[in-house]
Every structure is written in C-alpha cells, then in structure tokens.
C-alpha cells in the first residue's frame, strides 16, 4: 500500500502525490481494532436471534448493524487515506482523500508562515523502558499511540492556526520534497531554521 512520492510538473503547478504511508504496525493495529469491534457487533447480532416481536431483539440487531457500518467506515477511511500537495503561483493546496470523502484546503502564499519539519514529537522515556522490567512493552505502546495520532511531519502557521500535513513523511523524504518545492516556488516558500542544517546534510550525502 505504501508508495513512493511522485512529482508532476504542470505548466503552472507542481503536484506532489504522497499516497498512503501508514506504517505496517499501525495497519496491524487498525486491523485488530476492526476485528475486535466487528466481533463485539457479532455478539450483539447473535443475541438478537431469533428475531421476534420483542423490542429488545430488534434494537440489538439494529445496533449491531450500525456498529458494522461505523467500524467498516473507520477502517477503510484510515487504511485508504491518501494525500496530495499542489503548489501554484497563488498558494499551496492540501488534498486529503478517503474512499468516502475528499477534503481540499487552499492556503495563500501571503498568509503561510515558515515551513517546519516536526517529525515525531519528543517524549520522555517510559519509566519501565529497557531491561527486563518492560514485560508489557509500555514504551512500544507509547510510540504506537504517538504514531497513531500524528497529524503530519510538515507544518506551517496560517493566521492563528497551525496546519499539519505530510503524514508518514520522514526526514530523508521531507528533504527531497522541500528541495523540489523550492525549485518551483523560489522565495515564496519560506523555511524554518532547522532546514538549513537538514538540507546541507542532504547535499553532502548526494555528493
């Protein structure tokens, strides 16, 4: 499901297709959640049979059907999430798409603040990390939760809001992506101070 980042140069725009970049262990977590939820719905459904005129049986069957629908919607929307970034002379557009809906937000260059690379937010080590004491994998669980709720590794301020995008894009991909974005935008794309070091390291690696 994970695909390489692709770049399409049009006459007056640059389209960056990020695709679906969910980590394998996060996919496993989504699958486990789906199976658990549908399993609970199946229990409700079995308890409702045989269907009769009893009001409780019909409510249980209807509740099971709703849970099936919600679980399927949530699972498919997460597993088949795709993201695109379009740059033109007016601004930057972020397109997020699932099998059910597409969100498109456009931001004017004049209001976009410096672009930052966030990566994963730093966090302190769990007290049971390492050694023979972390029997239940608390540290791993915390990293999974952090990845699960991460909004995106690139961000900028727009007015009073912070806009996050580029889920699952890590430093080596972000450096290449920003390098190509700058080729198209020139000075319109402003960068945070962290990029000076990151892009220098990227150029050294290329040489």
In short:
This protein has 207 residues and is of the alpha+beta class. It is built from 5 helices and 8 strands.
Provide structural commentary.
This protein is of the alpha+beta class and 207 residues long. It has a domain at 28-78. It has five helices and eight strands. The protein has helices at residues 24-48, 55-79, 138-148, 171-185, 194-206, and strands spanning 6-9, 13-19, 82-88, 91-97, 102-108, 116-117, 154-158, 161-165. It has a five-stranded antiparallel β-sheet with strand order 1-2-3-4-5, with helices on one face. Helix 1 packs antiparallel against helix 2 (55-79) and helix 4 (171-185) packs across helix 5 (194-206). The longest helix is centred in the first third of the chain and has 25 residues, at 24-48. The chain starts with 5 loop residues before the first strand and ends with a helix. Residues 120-149 have low confidence and may be disordered.
- Tally of separate helices: 5
Rg over C-alpha atoms, rounded to the nearest angstrom: 22 Å
Low-confidence stretches: 120-149
Provide the helix percentage: 40-55%
What's the end-to-end separation, in Å? 32 Å
What is the overall silhouette? elongated
Largest sheet: 5 strands, antiparallel
Order of helices and strands: EEHHEEEEHEEHH
- By secondary-structure content and strand pairing, the structural class works out as alpha+beta
Order of strands across the biggest sheet? 1-2-3-4-5
What is the typical, i.e. mean, pLDDT? 79
Give the percentage of residues in beta strands: 15-25%
- The number of distinct β-strands equals 8
């Amino acid at each position: 499901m994970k695909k390489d980042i692709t770049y399409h140069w049009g006459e007056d725009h640059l389209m960056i297709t990020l695709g679906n970049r969910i980590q394998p262990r996060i996919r496993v977590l989504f699958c486990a959640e789906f199976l658990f939820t549908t399993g609970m719905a199946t229990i409700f459904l079995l308890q409702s049979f045989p269907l009769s005129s009893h009001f409780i049986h019909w409510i249980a069957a209807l509740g099971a059907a709703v849970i099936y629908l919600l679980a399927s919607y949530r699972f498919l929307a997460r597993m088949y999430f795709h993201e695109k970034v379009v740059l033109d002379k007016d601004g930057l557009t972020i397109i997020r798409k699932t099998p059910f809906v597409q969100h498109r937000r456009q931001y004017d260059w004049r209001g976009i603040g410096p672009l930052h690379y966030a990566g994963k937010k730093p966090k302190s080590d769990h007290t049971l990390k390492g050694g023979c004491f972390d029997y239940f994998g608390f540290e791993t669980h915390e990293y999974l939760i952090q990845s699960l709720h991460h909004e995106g590794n690139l961000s900028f301020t727009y007015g009073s809001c912070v806009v996050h995008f580029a889920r699952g894009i890590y430093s080596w991909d972000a450096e290449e992506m920003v390098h190509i974005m700058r080729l198209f935008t020139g000075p319109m794309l402003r960068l945070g101070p962290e990029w000076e070091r990151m892009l220098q390291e990227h150029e050294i690696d290329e040489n």
